[in-house]
Amino acid sequence: MNIAILSRGPKLYSTSRLKEAGLKRGHKVRVVDYLRCSMDITSHRPKMFYKGEPLVGIDAVIPRIGASHTFYGTAVVRQFEMMGVYPLNESQAISRSRDKLRSLQLLSRAGVGLPVTAFAHSPRDVSAIIETVKGAPLVVKLLEGTQGIGVVLCETQSAAESVIEAFRGLNAYILAQEFIAEAGGMDIRCLVVGGRVVASMKRQGAKGEFRSNLHRGGNAEKMKITPEERSTAVRAAKVMGLSVSGVDLLRSNHGPVVMEVNSSPGLEGIEGATGIDVADKIIEHIEKQAKPGATKDKGRG
Domain 117-179 carries which CATH code? Predict the structure, then answer.
């Protein structure tokens, strides 16, 4: 099989591990910088070019699209879909997961456990937002934030009002969520591949830090999850339409709640913490699923 990894960093851990796993299983694998791709959007004859040369003979693509390049990256994935190439994660699913508000609304509709969340446009509705999430302490999140950036814990009502008003004054869209104090700065990352959790780890925030992101100094270790947590992670990935995803959960007093569903989960932390060859399981999934035209939405919408 001829596999293309859509990534801007061939030396990044996740990209290099996926390439290594693909080669080990006997496939041809190349890393393609999706920002150097250009598209011929001719009716019935869609084509892809890479660095000015036709990109042909690709059987499957593994999107590793950075958050800052979601628009163009998903356009490239969508073009491959129109050409009948199998995408590990489809363009629509990636777009869904990158829109925090949309993803929470979809998860809510499906009955997946979530923290109480509020969203409003006008700064004049700050009090209503705070009241919706049961008051302070509460967490304020930028819709565009990643890796813990743009996430603020507001311990008092006045602090929450100031933060929300400041963000809205900059025309930044934010979510307010209840603070799950019982989680103690710990969350669970579940790596879901093909509808099952293949690896899970506990991420603990650094001392004095409520965010557990490894990029922010948190540490990780292997963790056995409960059947309810496993089911929640699988359901969240299914709602997003993602074949591969990192689902972040918190343990709350009313059961597991989903914080985020990541369409390009990093492999370094979870492989290091669990010792599980996640990259191999992803390539194995592609082997089972990749067929010409095996895209559910065929690039529609």
Answer: 3.30.1490.20
